[in-house]
Amino acid sequence: MPTHTPSASGLEPPADWRGRSVRKLRTTGGPHAPERVRHWLQATAHWLPDEIESNLMLLTCELVNNSVLHGDVDESQTIEIELRATDGGLRAQVTDPGPGFRPTGRTRDFDEPGGWGLVLVERLAASWGVEHDQRTRVWFELAPA
Questions:
Q1: How many domains, in total, are found in the chain?
Q2: Is the separation of the CB atoms in 98 and 72 below 8 Å?
Q3: Looking at the domain assignment, is residue 2 inside a domain?
Q4: Percent of the chain with pLDDT over 90
Q5: End-to-end C-alpha distance for the chain, whole angstroms
Q6: Confidence band (pLDDT; 50, 70, 90) for 6?
Q7: What is the dihedral angle through the alpha carbons of 44, 99, 67, 94, rounded to the nearest 10 degrees?
Q8: Is position 108 within any domain?
Q9: Is 120 helix (H, G, I), strand (E, B) or coil?
């Protein structure tokens, strides 16, 4: 399995990413969407350091799951995932046709199950945000430690 090459700015993508540093997946929603995304990420982002690859997998699949559960994105609709190598890191974006949301602090009791996805995004990503137009885009950036 290929490994990453550190560079002065952070991560150096493999040769097949250079000059075309964007990778995209379009998949249908529904309960199997996170599984399809996990398989794609394993094949696409294997060059990343283990910690960044794990965080990418966790956060992207959590956002896809949120699209399905909270955005009601079913098998008749499309979720798009975009990965982009940046100067020193990686940006991931999940786009869906759902109604969107406004990020707020956690208001639920810490003993309640569920509702931790955006807490994970907040804690593990270097930065993140939500954008709306006719679609909802949630993005985050990961950088090496």
A1: 1
A2: yes
A3: no
A4: 49
A5: 22
A6: very low
A7: 10
A8: yes
A9: helix
**106 secondary structure, DSSP code:** -
Residue 33 maps to a domain: yes
- Give 88's strand partners: none
Q: Is residue 37 part of a domain?
A: yes
**Residues 68, 10: Cα–Cα separation, whole Å:** 33
Do residues 90 and 56 touch, judged by C-beta distance below 8 A? yes
Parent domain of 113: 20-142
Residue 5 confidence class, pLDDT cut points 50, 70, 90: very low
Which tens digit of pLDDT belongs to each residue from 65-120?
999 988 899 999 999 999 988 777 889 999 999 877 766 655 556 666 667 788 88
* Paired tokens of 28: 């249908």
The answer to whether the pTM exceeds 0.70 is yes
| Tokens 């002065």 belong to residue | 8
- Look up residue 8 and give its amino acid: A
Three-state SS for 18? coil
Would you tell me the crossing angle of helices 117-124 and 50-70 to the nearest 10 degrees? 150
Residue 74: give its domain's CATH number.
3.30.565.10
